[in-house]
Write a structure and sequence with these properties.
Radius of gyration of chain A: 19 Å
Helix content of chain B: 25-40%
Shape of chain A: globular
Distance between the termini of chain A: 39 Å
Number of strands of chain B: 8
Oligomer: heterodimer
Helix content of chain A: 25-40%
Structural class of chain A: alpha/beta
Radius of gyration of chain B: 20 Å
Distance between the termini of chain B: 51 Å
Largest sheet of chain B: 6 strands, parallel
Order of helices and strands of chain A: EHEHEHEHEHEHEEEEHEEHEHEHH
Number of helices of chain B: 10
Number of helices of chain A: 11
Structural class of chain B: alpha/beta
Bound molecules: thiamine diphosphate
Strand content of chain A: 15-25%
Strand order of the largest sheet of chain B: 2-1-3-4-8-7
Largest sheet of chain A: 7 strands, mixed
Shape of chain B: globular
Largest interface: A-B, 52 and 52 residues
């Protein structure tokens, strides 16, 4: 095990997959000499050349749209968007084309492509660079939507995303790119479509990813000895491993769903409804949701901090279930 | 560049003339049969017919090698599926939404795709198929397959940014792709005359691509232009933009009242590329009127058989609606380590 940042973990995953499979190539704005917006592709072009680590003109339509065709044509592109927010500028590609072509073709086309795009708020960049988009794309059956919360997750899940035969929208968090954690020295992958129980507990289940995951873990520590919190990290939002979450609630009888997506039609509601409709009689208290109120993400630091849920809010939500 | 005069059929090898005519007849017979069935209320959804585009479709289809890819655009689709080699019965079955179609009924007329025949199919959000075409071309280039991609679009679709992005990517990476713009002057009702650009192939000029505008009612002209562009792309010469000027003989879709059409352009039968090619071939002594009629009758019979095949085929089982969403198991799930 070695301490690494999420950026380093992502870079290692790309490096190893470029090495492993010549159909893999990395493509996007400034992924070459510049080394990626967060440094995640640093040095890769030097190592693999400008065909396999490929700079593009500035167009998300071109990046995602060509990647779709390249995947049909037998390649395994990792198409990078500098910020996940920009998926909206390739709206038709992201909504109508990529997640639909496998289905429309009646299963003739496989689309082994990854869209790698840092998502989420907290880096003081205003409403158009701060969104959590996994609810948008989770709403498109056909896209596998994956988030990374730790360096360990980032590396293991990105490698799986690249090897998976589905289009995967892979979302590390912008504000966690420098976050360090233990990463195994030996080769490993993590399963897609499976939630991880990151901390076991008997009294309440908290479901959270990315920044919210770390805040949920912090809340759990603060409550230790008083309330025994189980923390589940879904890792993949679409398709969602509801079974692991339900099993946890059947044990604890309480649920708090925390996410950075807006509460209005965000992931929290879906997670709660899956458990309520299937395991209603396991509940000892009404489930709680924590998320961003219905507002774009503001720029000014105190305002941004105000709308993004903090540990206090998670603690309060947990307490409401008792 | 504009090709002023149509190439002479006399210069054309007999076999090429025959295939071009066959393909045009196949398309017409197929679409006439589809129209008849649509009127019977048998065909679900919209029906967009190719009448007037047959020469353009035949010319480009015959210019391609079987392993070249076709990404279809515009809305005149059936003819393009057929020239890419999809047999009439399979194409008709897909239009009917039957399980015997290449997409097992999940695509329909606007999305017919055939992986084995290297038919990508159509992005029914018009103009969104051109970037995937560039990507398929990139895959050919990186994998050194030697195959070329032909991608079509209508005059309407050229106004979308996605089309222009595709040209930028194709030119930047010298991709083996040929963009064919079938300009039939109408995007549903919007007249291409209103566009400030003289000929739509000029969109390739600022990117230094070879461009050409040809009479798309002449299969020989289209065949020559697309063949040259395909050859260039195959030998590493990069992308080309071709405008193929055609006539849309019918409404945008069946049921279109066409109030937007003037009387002169409503009388589109004069521009029928099938009868004019037939007349040229008869004049050149390639074929007699009687031989033409006999051959056409054979295609009509085949189209009827295709309709019967489609009618007799089953609809997919309802559970099929839930297949093909994900390739399962996902990577790393039990059994999913590939
Ligand atoms: C992005 C998008 N906008 C609008 C439509 C609706 N629509 C379908 S076909 C069409 C006109 C297409 O015209 P053109 O590209 O010239 O092709 P043609 O019908 O002439 O073959 C329109 C507006 C669509 N399918 N997709």
């Amino acid at each position: 095990m070695t301490e690494k940042s999420i950026t380093e973990a992502l870079r290692e995953a790309l490096d190893e997959e470029l090495q492993r499979d010549e159909r893999v190539y990395v493509v996007g704005e400034d992924v070459g000499d510049f080394g990626g917006n967060f440094g995640e592709t640093q040095g890769l072009q030097e190592k693999y050349g400008d065909k396999r680590v490929r700079d593009t003109p500035l167009s998300e339509i071109g990046i995602t749209g060509h990647a779709l065709g390249a995947a049909v044509g037998g390649m395994r592109p990792v198409a990078e968007l500098q910020f996940a927010d920009f998926a909206a500028t390739a709206g038709d590609e992201m909504v109508n084309q990529i997640p639909k072509m496998g289905y429309i073709s009646g299963g003739q086309f496989t689309l082994p492509m990854t869209v790698l795009a840092p998502s989420g708020a907290g880096i003081r960049s205003g409403a158009q660079h701060s969104q959590s988009v996994h609810a948008w794309m989770g709403n498109q059956p056909g896209f596998v939507v994956v988030t990374a919360s730790t360096p360990y997750d980032a590396k293991g899940l990105l490698k799986s995303a690249i090897r998976d035969d589905n289009p995967v929208f892979f979302l590390p968090h912008k504000n966690l790119m420098g976050k360090k954690g233990e990463v195994p020295d030996e080769e490993y992958t993590l399963p897609l479509g499976e939630a991880a129980v990151e901390r076991t507990g008997e009294d309440v289940t908290v479901v959270a990813t990315q920044q919210m995951f770390h805040r949920a873990m912090e809340a759990a520590e603060q409550l230790a000895g008083d309330i025994d919190v189980e923390v589940v990290n879904p890792r993949t939002f679409a398709p969602l491993d509801t079974e692991t979450i339900r099993e946890s609630v059947r044990k604890t009888g309480r649920l708090v769903a925390v996410d950075e997506t807006p509460l209005r039609y965000g992931t929290q509601g879906y997670i709660v409804s899956e458990v309520v409709s299937n395991d209603f009689f396991s509940f000892d208290a009404p489930p709680q949701t924590v998320g961003v109120e219905d507002t774009p993400i503001p720029f000014s630091p105190p305002l941004e901090d105000e709308v993004i849920p903090d540990t206090e809010e998670i603690l309060a939500a947990i307490r409401r279930t008792f | 560049m504009v090709s002023e005069s149509n190439p002479d059929v006399d210069d054309l090898p007999r076999e090429t003339a025959d295939v071009l005519l066959d393909e045009m007849m196949r398309i017409r017979a197929f679409d006439d049969a589809a129209l008849e069935q649509f009127r019977e209320g048998d065909v679900p959804g919209f029906l967009h017919l190719c009448h007037g585009h047959e020469a353009s479709h035949a010319g480009m289809g015959v210019a391609m090698a079987p392993d070249d890819w076709l990404a279809v655009g515009g809305s005149r689709l059936h003819g393009q599926y057929l020239v890419k080699g999809v047999p009439m019965p399979e194409a008709m079955a897909e239009i009917y939404g039957k399980e015997t179609g290449p997409n097992r009924g999940k695509g329909g007329s606007m999305h017919l795709a055939d992986y084995d025949r290297h038919l990508y199919g159509h992005a029914a959000t018009i103009g969104s198929g051109q970037n995937p075409a560039a990507g398929i071309a990139l895959a050919q280039q990186m994998r050194e397959t030697g195959n070329v991609v032909v991608s079509t679009i209508g005059d309407g679709g050229t106004s979308r940014g996605s089309f222009h992005t595709a040209l930028v990517f194709a030119a930047t990476w010298d991709l083996p792709v040929v963009y064919v713009i079938e300009n039939n002057e109408f995007a549903i009702s919007y007249d291409a005359e209103n566009l400030p650009i003289e000929q739509l192939s000029d969109y390739g000029e600022p990117l230094d691509m070879p461009t050409e505008s040809v009479d798309g009612s002449d299969p020989v002209a289209v065949h020559e232009a697309v063949s040259a562009a395909v050859d260039r792309a195959r030998s590493g010469g990069g992308p080309t933009v071709i405008e193929s000027r055609v006539t849309r003989m019918r409404g945008h879709f069946e049921g279109d009242k066409q109030q937007y059409r003037t009387e002169t352009d409503a009388d589109a039968s004069e521009a029928d590329p099938l009868t004019s090619f037939r007349d040229r071939l008869i004049e050149a002594g390639h074929i007699t009127a009687a031989e033409y009629d006999d051959r056409y009758a054979e295609f009509e019979a085949k189209a009827r058989e295709a309709v019967e095949f489609a009618q007799e085929s089953d609809f997919p089982d309802s559970e099929v609606a839930y297949d093909d969403i994900y390739e399962e198991p996902l990577y790393g799930q039990e059994g999913g380590d590939r």
